[in-house]
Amino acid sequence: MVVASSSTIISNHFWNCDIYDRISCPRTPEQNNMAERKHSHLVKMRLTLMTHSHVPKELDAKMADCSSDTNLLLKEFYIPDYILVPESSVEHLSYTPDCPVIVFINSRSGGQLGGDLLLTYREILNRAQVFDLGEQAPDKVLHRLYGNLERLKSGGDKLAFEIQNRLRLIVAGGDGTASWLLGVVSDLKLEQPPPIATVPLGTGNNLPFSFGWGKKNPGTDRNSVKSFLGEVKKGKAMKIDSWHIVMRMRIPAKGSCDPIAPLELPHSLHAFNRVSDTDSLNREGYHTFRGGFWNYFSMGMDAQVSYAFHSERKLHPEKFKNQLVNQSMYAKHVSTQGWFFASLLHPSSRNIAQLAEVKIMKKPGQWEKLHIPRSIRSIICLNLPSFSGGLNPWGTPSTRKERDRDLTAPFVDDGRIEIVGFVDAWHGLLLLSPKGHGTRLAQAHGVRFKFHKGAMDHTFMRLDGEPWKQPLPVDDDKVVVEISHLGQVNMLATQNCISKSIHDQSSPSAVSHHDEDSSSSDESVDDTEEKRKFGAADTFKLPEDFDNLHFN
Question: Residue spans with biased composition (Acidic residues) (predicted)?
């Protein structure tokens, strides 16, 4: 018997039947052993099927018997091939998927976990729904998907309408990977952008933690993945602010001022890169860089430590086996760089006040100078309540401080960003205490850094976990970094979400500090076109023969 469809599709159907059989009901240890032997046999059978097109009749019958079981497992999240691959034949489904998903996985994140997670998702979903970010960039994937959806919708395909309306994205990787996808979705400028669930994988995991997905690396077995998919289905869409960052400086007479990533950091150039000569942001005689972030931008001490950590991880990946080891290595860099005794070991030129003048926009269009105490060596512009692995630098101001300093709780969708300073590593350790927080400097709708001429020949910066070394021209007094609000994106939040919405002040929060007696008192320390994309992806362009009325 010659099977019309490809052997790969046949083997995947048979494989999925086994998956359903293995997880559909609890078993005794003896039954589990028998199931594992059966599974091992099916693995060998699958490899055989992938290289042969002739299938025995009894196997063909077995596949037909279990096809309905496969649908029971996959139908909630399933997307048929013809939706994903434009040249595929139309597949008529007898149901509408409740929660169709597209999955992006950084297979290099979390040691071997990224690769294991990729295999598991590809085993229990349509393989065409699951993408390795090391092989396919998300902008190209989503460009193709939404282009095909528009084509099918224009032809009256009802399933295409439902898939687009119900679509959810899953991204597994570090914060930099998640921000990469957020930037791509922002660049698409969709009328109805899909909400995004983040799988914590690697170090940091501030984005997943902020929305209730945890900060520990996930299980990679089928049951763990199935459980996560269930949470994705139940997740609630939540809007968060997007922030645009632009840096402009004169072209230096000597050398380059391009950002220096720590040894081929995968996504740093997606986070922050130089604009092209034809870009509207470009100015003659200047280098202009731009990027976007959703959690934080930082400069100074913390970014320098992060840069050293990422550099060593690239040079010696064998040292970074798990999250506990990673955290201890991070602490080592904090110590060896002298940040526990910063006032003694580092000159005043390392202070933020010596490096740049800071202005903030308290009200639209109104800029005012922000006083930065000379002891501050790290400054963080924070949008979400999670930094450095789940710590909250802003905390929750007391009623008195809210009144006296015109401060509010840190909402993630209020168009304002929190600005926090740190003196040294000991100051950072205060975040581990129940009432600990950094030095609250301000809340603003925009932030502008103007670097002092000749103060330093470089500094360290970080966007959503992606650090880089930023050279500065010593003969230029016009180096400016400006942060401004630019729209919102949709995140998926679980019931454990710690982020707060200004529109839903009853939203769950795991931590509510009232720091009347906190030892880290704040008072104790002396044009639209220019923002049209984040630089995370090429500008989104539909084919010329497309009707783009469905896009904003």
Answer: 518-528
